[in-house]
Amino acid sequence: MSLKLINGIFYSEHKLENIDNEGLIKEVTNTYLNGDSSIKGDRPQKQNDIPISHTFYEDCPLSLKYKETFNPQIANITNTTFGDQSFSMADTWGHFTPPLEQTMVHHHAGGNIPHLQLSWVYYPHQPKGVGSICFIATVNESRINYEVEAKQGHLYLFSPSILHYVPRNGSGINRISISGNLKSSDKFTQSIKEDVGFESNYWYFVGRDEKLIE
After folding, report:
1. pLDDT value, residue 91
2. Which of 12, 19, 84, 184 fits a 20 to 30 Å CA distance from 195?
3. Distance from first CA to last CA of the chain, Å, rounded?
4. What is the number of other CB atoms lying within 10 angstroms of the CB of residue 67?
């Protein structure tokens, strides 16, 4: 694991293997542009029903076939980093950004999941000029942007509460990425509540939050 400091918290970068990147790009492109009623998920099929200012506007559901390619590799990352069966997949989706468009500032925190969360993004391609994820942090009461030099075939794990965005796509081709959220197991959630010494690697990602300690 390669931890990268943003501002008191970190993200981590992981190279994934045996991912059908071309297939992912093709599926997300087709589902976003044409819809696919055979693919079920928690993201909309018709972007016309979503306000253009909402990040769901760039999202589309991902098929079970591709979800299952991510599950074991992400489980290996979280098991190694936080302990066995610490996290599982909550949701996964494709993200489609055409040329000259961008992804608005947002975060993944909240929802109705009564567990700890982490978020991730995977890049099946990263053409020149396509844009990279930028995290927004606060240092000495000033806002800073931390731009990640995203790489093809790499997954980035980060706090769901940190604000982030992707700038205008200047590559001339459609930008495709895969994103998701993870939820903690009951056992891991309890271990964090009891971690008064802040010894878990989880604190690297979310900061030392005493509100999570019982």
Report:
1. 92
2. 12
3. 29
4. 17
